[in-house]
Predict the structure of Obg-like ATPase homolog.
Amino acid sequence: MPPKKAETVENNVVRFGRVKNNLNMGVVGLPNVGKSSLFNLLTEQSVAAENYPFCTIDTNVARCPVPDTRYDFLCDLWAPPSCYPAYLMVTDIAGLIKGASEGAGLGNTFLSHIQAVDGIFHVVRAFENDDVVHVEDSVDPVRDLETIQNELCKKDLEILVRNKQAEEANVRKSGGAYKLSPLFNDTFAKIKEMLEKNIPVRDGTWSSGEIELINEKTQLITTKPVIYLINLTQTDFIRKKNKWLAKIHKWVTEHGGGTMIPFSVEFETNLWKLKDKPEEKESFLKEHGATSNLPKIITNGYTQLGLIYYFTAGETEVRCWTIREGCLAPQAAGVIHSDFERGFIKAEVCAFNDFKELCGGRKGMAEIKAAGKYRQEGKTYVVQDGDIIHFQFNVTAQKKK
């Protein structure tokens, strides 16, 4: 009789993938939908973004600061010589086309690039422009969504079969000393059935044991969280209307749901050109009654990866330290330095909102302590997003053998 499965995990997308702090969002989509242009805007890089398919062949990786008014408040208050925000790592990946899973358009290379990232910004073109060629000769975002999802599912099916064959080979080599568990066989059969129907793995309902197995035995693309970025003309973005938006929303809802963010490369590019002209920039925004959606894209990408950060703040530095959601205090301390984790004694903690409310615009923790909002936490404390922390540790603590 197979062992009883663990309880079902809800909202498990962030449970899939690597358990690390340096996670990465990949910018994915068909050619000429605005991927590299978006990457340039997010990271203020200068990556080639020409009007022909496969302009981007090698991946480009950069980072963009995560906007946060809490961080801005601490920097303004302490005014230290060093300020270090949280960063989102972003990879620009070449455009995929129909047949990519079978090698079309250097597809296998580009699919391996998607396999290497931890989350996906899926850029969808919802604008007409005769000067920007479309790989399918016509604009149809729903068709394009189907194309990308089908190619990713096909690639995952190939990966799944290859991994199962490798495990079966290990069984044969062991001479019976090693056998595939019922959980392994059942999970792989369930994944195979989903992928054959072009259903991403992330859209399934999984137990914690199944998720651990999938993480250990596979590197499936469709386990990765997805944010759908809908690229509109500047006119459509400003008026918040586009003939495709309702159809795209319907497709997303019927295919597992997810975050959908309309934006406009055209609008963002025109705004970025005014970055050194504050008065003209303010006039541009006021005239059009719109604001940039890049901060929303960045913060949603960071959150979808299951990342949070805590603050350290003082006279010399204000800094955000990225950790995975659910991280315990010693491991959070280890992000600063391994000695902090090895010799962890306690964490002195206050929530950002308590600090802002009680500090009276002054540096230091005197008012927060007086109000009883400055507390000491031990090794089992789960660090919360926005905690302000000072760690106590003993550097003479001996390493465990």
User: Anything to note?
Assistant: The chain has two domains: 13-303, 309-393. Residues 141-174 form the longest helix (34 residues).
